[in-house]
Design a protein that fits this description.
By secondary structure, this protein is an alpha/beta fold. It folds into four domains: 3-144, Response regulator (Rossmann fold, 3-Layer(aba) Sandwich), CATH 3.40.50.2300; 148-292, Beta-Lactamase; 300-460, Alpha-Beta Plaits (2-Layer Sandwich); 484-727, EAL domain (TIM Barrel, Alpha-Beta Barrel). 43% of the residues lie in helices and 22% in strands. It has 27 helices and 26 strands. The strands form five sheets. It has an eight-stranded mixed β-barrel, surrounded by six helices. Strands 2-1-3-4-5 form a five-stranded parallel β-sheet, sandwiched between helices. The chain has a five-stranded antiparallel β-sheet with strand order 7-6-10-9-8, with helices on both faces. Strand 14 and strand 15 (415-417) form a beta hairpin. The protein is elongated and about 125 Å long. It comes from Pseudoduganella lutea. Residues 18-132 form the Response regulatory domain. The modification 4-aspartylphosphate is found at residue 67. Residues 471-725 form the EAL domain.
């Protein structure tokens, strides 16, 4: 079917409304066409702005259903051209844009309505019907204007049927005529208004502006046009005793007025024309004003929490700074970041995360004074301005109230969660005299709290800025380290304590910093995680490990297994599996020599995706270990779903072993889980003989830690392997041939 040729049957009445449907999505255009077909319309379609304008040039349309995003000419530009060329048609805008700028732009250009995709079938049909009905009413009004002079009776009937209030005033501003629409909109009968001054229905605050409208004496183009006023409404119908009460409910109207004069040469007129009153039309635009107010409100408020957004917060902070400067007072700016929110969002989903934000915002707001401002910056970050402080202790007290309020448990439909917050505080004027300075310094103070363990507050100090600059310098240096070859892999052997032989090793990244010397992974990898450097670092590590494995195998270590720590960010990247397979193929490494170590938290980020990725690794021949087992947040159910081969007992549990005959239930539980599931077991951080004997006695035979070996460079590790090879060779010789 050709959508561009569906103007109805040849004998279709010419009076049928003609609609132009404009959308560059063929599927949506076809769906829209099918929805409006057979409903008494003549339809024409266009898939681009140029095609739409060509149709508008060729014929008249009653209504245009217009998509804003077109491949050539934007919807707003098309509306501007419609207005400039004087096309007599109404426009309904349909758009998938979520921002308010598109809606405001469409309404300002005279759009009848704005529908956000996806819209409902009923909403579209009702809007089209209302638009055409409004158009028919407008046509009727035009026809009415042409017949007023020929029939007073018809004039009365048509004026009273108008959707607008039509009125006349005498030269003193008293009503001499109003149509029935005044009663329908305002609740005042014609008898109640005739003879009364116009100020009777105008809101007190709008009386000055009303004077220029209701006393209009100009004519033609100079007359008043579209002046907005608020009118009082009579919403009560009076009590039984006939008394009438007035509720000052307000209605905003748009007024058009023109002065009425006795024509030149009238009886008794000697000089010019005499003014004898005003004729005007008042249109109800209450719904439009409410819509505009709603759009304006949403532009400055966060939809989820109903708090001021970043834009409104900066505006209020700017006013507070001006007042503090004038009154020589202090104010505080706080930057709040919710701790552990991301964990809740990942485990329970975004819906529960949104509920948590709403509840947290309500608690924070309950801790503030009337003149304070709480705003949502985005994500799980909030900002607060506390004007007119007596001293810093006021801000400290509020911060402590925030922490106390947030530490109470949150109930998210049966899920009880606990969070805390990190709060940074900057004080005007000592910590900054501008909006940006105060916000930046409060943010820096907040990150200082994060670095010190979270769940607290801190005032900004200039030394923190130095630390922030050091972080920036560290980021730059780390990027250079990748380019300059300053990174190196170290290896910590894993020992089978039964035989005393090395059975594997864990690869650990080190940074040969040109100024600070050798840095361990813990000194720079957390920073790399925060600053998007884990992906290039992981790419480097994968290549370096495979390259070092070649040296392993040459030294007789081909039977050993190499464990590498996998960043969650690296696993989430779609091409991780292909990079692993490519590196193993490129260096000729057997996948059986590789064991990928993941943390429990990987299991809760995106379980199904993680399972798919790890299963692909297992099919390749790579084994999987859970690192730091028992310190994360995953459930034991994940051990059944994930392809796990090894459990590593975290060193924090191993350090608790001080008595060989003691009872350490967490250690025993982990060993029992591994034995029950048939998994290999490795204990990390073994530093004493007591720890080693306890672990071995209870079923853990593979260990790594300072008791056996510290992490060493590749050359040193190769020396260890060579020594083990010589020892094995000597043990294999007959006693007479040993050195």
């Amino acid at each position: 079917m050709n959508l561009n040729d569906d103007l109805g049957p040849a004998d279709a009445p010419a009076c049928l409304p003609r609609l132009l449907l404009v959308d560059d999505e063929p599927r949506l255009l076809s769906s829209l066409h099918d929805l409006l077909r057979d409903r008494g319309y003549r339809l024409l379609t266009a898939t681009s702005g140029r095609e739409a304008l060509a149709h508008l040039d060729a014929m008249r349309f009653d209504l245009v259903l217009l998509d804003l995003r077109l491949p050539d000419i934007g919807g707003h530009d098309i509306m501007d051209m419609i207005k400039a060329r004087g096309y007599d048609c109404d426009v309904i805008v349909m758009s998938g844009e979520v921002g308010i700028d598109a809606a405001i732009g469409a309404l300002k250009r005279g759009a009848y309505d704005y529908l956000r995709k996806p819209y409902s079938r009923e909403e579209l049909l009702k809007t089209v019907d209302n638009a055409l009905q409004k158009r028919r009413l407008a046509v009727d009004n035009q026809r009415i204007a042409g017949k007023l002079a020929t029939s007073e009776k018809m004039y009365r009937y048509l004026v009273d049927s108008s959707p607008d209030i039509i009125y006349t005033l005498d030269h003193q501003g008293r009503f001499t005529f109003v149509n029935d629409r005044a009663f329908q909109l305002l609740g005042f009968t014609r008898e109640e208004l005739i003879g009364r001054h116009y100020s009777f229905v105008v809101h007190d605050e709008d009386l000055d502006r009303a004077r220029y409208v209701f006393n209009e004496r100009r004519v033609d183009e100079r007359a008043s046009r579209n002046v907005e006023l608020r009118l009082k409404c009579n919403t009560a119908h009076g009590a039984a005793n006939g008394e009438r009460t007035f509720n000052n409910t307000l209605m905003t109207i748009s007024l058009n007025a023109i002065g009425m004069h006795v024509p030149d040469g009238g009886a008794g007129i000697r000089h010019g024309r005499e003014f004898f009153g005003t004729y005007g039309v008042a249109r109800d635009i209450t719904d439009r004003k409410r819509a505009e107010e709603m759009i304006s409100y949403q532009a400055y408020h966060d939809i989820l929490t109903d708090l001021p957004n970043r834009m409104l917060f900066k505006d209020r902070l700017g006013l507070a700074v001006i007042q503090a400067r004038r009154k020589l007072t202090e104010l505080a700016v706080m930057f709040i970041d919710l701790d552990r929110f991301k964990l809740v969002n990942d485990t329970l989903g975004h819906v529960k995360g949104d509920e948590l934000l709403q509840q947290a915002a309500k608690r924070l707001k309950g801790c503030l004074r009337r003149g304070d401002t709480l705003a949502r910056q985005g994500g799980d970050e909030f900002t607060i301005v506390l004007p007119e402080l007596r001293d810093r202790t006021d801000a400290k007290a509020v911060a402590e109230k925030f922490l106390d309020a947030l530490q109470k448990p949150f109930d998210l439909d049966g899920h009880v969660v606990h969070i805390s917050a990190s709060i940074g505080i900057a004080i005007y004027p000592n910590d900054g005299e501008t909006i940006d300075e105060l916000l930046r310094h409060a943010d820096i103070a907040m990150y200082q709290v994060k670095a010190l363990g979270k769940n607290g507050h801190s005032f900004y100090d200039p030394s923190m800025l130095d630390m922030s600059r050091q972080k920036i310098a560290l980021e730059r240096a780390l990027r250079r380290a990748l380019e300059n070859g300053e990174l190196e892999m170290y290896y910590q052997p894993q020992v089978d304590v039964t035989t005393g032989r090395i059975v594997g090793a864990e690869g650990l990244m080190r940074w040969n910093h040109p100024e600070r010397g050798l840095l361990s992974a813990g000194e720079f990898l957390p920073f790399a995680e925060e600053n998007g450097l884990m992906l290039p670092l992981s790419d480097w590590m994968l290549d370096a490990l495979c390259r070092d494995l070649l040296a392993w195998n040459m030294a007789g270590g081909d039977a050993l297994r190499l464990s590498l720590n996998l960043s969650p960010q690296y696993l989430d990247r779609g091409d991780f599996f292909e990079k692993m397979r490519g590196a193993l193929t490129r260096y000729g490494i057997s996948p059986a020599q590789i064991e990928v170590e993941i943390t429990e938290n990987i299991c809760i980020r995106n379980p199904q995706y993680a399972i798919e990725q790890l299963n692909k690794l297992c099919q390749l021949g790579v084994s999987v270990a859970i690192d730091d087992f028992g310190t994360g947040y995953s459930s034991l159910a994940y051990l059944h779903r994930f392809p796990i081969h090894t459990i590593k007992i975290d060193q924090s549990f191993v350090k608790e072993i001080h008595d060989e005959a003691g009872h350490y239930p967490v250690i025993l539980a982990i060993i029992s889980i591994a034995r029950g599931l048939g998994l290999h077991l490795v204990a990390e951080g073994v530093e004493t003989d007591v720890q080693a004997r306890y672990l071995q006695a209870n079923g853990c035979a593979t260990m790594q830690g300072y008791l056996y070996y510290r992490p060493v460079s590749l050359d040193s590790f190769l020396d260890v392997l060579a020594a083990q090879q010589r020892l094995a060779y000597d043990d294999a010789l007959p006693l007479a041939f040993r050195a």
